[in-house]
Design a protein that fits this description.
Elements (H helix, E strand, L loop, with lengths): L13 E7 L2 E8 L4 E5 L15 H4 L3 E5 L18 H15 L4 E6 L1 H12 L4 E7 L10 H26 L6 H15 L5 H10 L19 E4 L11 H10 L4 E3 L12 H14 L12
Parallel strand pairs: 3-4, 3-5, 5-6, 6-7, 7-8
Antiparallel strand pairs: 1-2, 2-4
Helix pairs in contact: 2-3, 4-6
Length: about 290
């Protein structure tokens, strides 16, 4: 499969549901051409990768997106232990199978970036290219302090819904003039989820595990890779240093970030989509089954 796209109109998305045991994954597919699978972050939904931009479809790509288990309008497993990176990766491949795509570019944000890296290491034949947006996972379970924080957020969500989560979140570490806007964004993001108990179970479960065996393991990735880091000091959960560590570990990875004074590239859907399209075009290959490096 070539990963180069051609400019085209973007038809309206078509909805789909993939059944995974007791879990239903809700998604949509739009456009035609080489496939790009979007993987969102924790507490996000399929909207929160390109933020509504349809520039990738217009550039000639078939864009597939879905709400991860326990997120958005997807359901979660009854088993609280069903939230692992391996389960998330298996879901992603099941979505590709459902759509009929053997191979795709994977574009993941935060938790989705770790999931994409997991797939690229475990099943490289399915991955045409990688786009890892503001990665945060270090390839090991979250530390005790981070797990306590996620537990606090999960309990707040379970017991008090969106207001309970916001209360547990506390005062954002941003300038006072921006706090109201940030809390509004958090509220709007959480209001997109239909099952707060399932989302809470995911927040508790997934960060107890690891998507891969440490940053050094990323050296085993063979797909062309774009890492989008951010030097946004108001987002301490996604430090630029982690993005740079990914780019240093992955062979021949390309690193991009916003210019000084610009808002984070990760949150500008149209600009991010253009960056992705340009990268895929630059790294297009006529080889459908390239041999892994190393």
């Amino acid at each position: 499969m070539s990963i180069v796209g051609a400019v085209s109109d973007a038809p309206e998305p078509l909805s789909f549901t993939v059944k995974r045991g007791d879990t239903n994954l809700s998604g949509e597919v739009a456009g035609s051409g080489p496939a790009v699978l979007l993987l969102h972050g924790a507490t996000g939904t399929r909207r929160y990768v390109l933020h509504g931009s349809r520039a990738l479809e217009r550039s000639g790509y078939r864009v597939i997106s879905y709400d991860a288990r326990g997120h958005g309008i997807s359901t979660g497993p009854h088993d609280p232990d069903g939230y692992t990176y391996d389960a998330l990766a298996s879901d992603a491949l099941a979505v590709l199978d459902h759509i009929g795509e053997e191979r795709a570019a994977l574009a993941g944000h935060s938790l989705g970036a770790a999931t994409a890296a997991n797939i690229a290491l475990a099943d490289p034949a399915r991955v045409a290219a990688l786009v890892l947006v503001t990665p945060a996972h270090r390839g090991r379970p979250a530390g005790d302090a981070a797990q306590r924080r996620w537990e606090r957020l999960a309990a707040g969500l379970e017991q008090g819904g969106v207001p309970g989560f916001v209360e547990a979140y506390g005062e954002p570490a941003v300038p006072e003039r921006q706090r109201e806007i940030m809390l509004k964004v958090i509220t709007q993001r959480l209001e997109r989820h239909v099952d707060h108990a399932a989302l809470a179970a995911c927040l508790r479960g997934v960060f107890r595990g690891a998507a891969f065996a440490g940053i050094d393991a990323l050296a085993g990735i063979s797909a062309p890779t774009l890492v989008v880091a951010s030097h946004d000091t108001m987002d301490p959960d996604h430090p630029e240093a982690i993005g740079r560590a990914y780019a240093a570990a992955i062979p021949d990875a390309t690193l991009v970030t916003e210019r000084a004074g610009e808002s984070p590239l990760a949150w500008r859907g149209g600009s991010l989509a253009k960056e992705i399209a340009d990268f895929l075009t630059d790294h297009a290959s006529s080889d459908d089954n390239p041999a892994p490096r190393g």
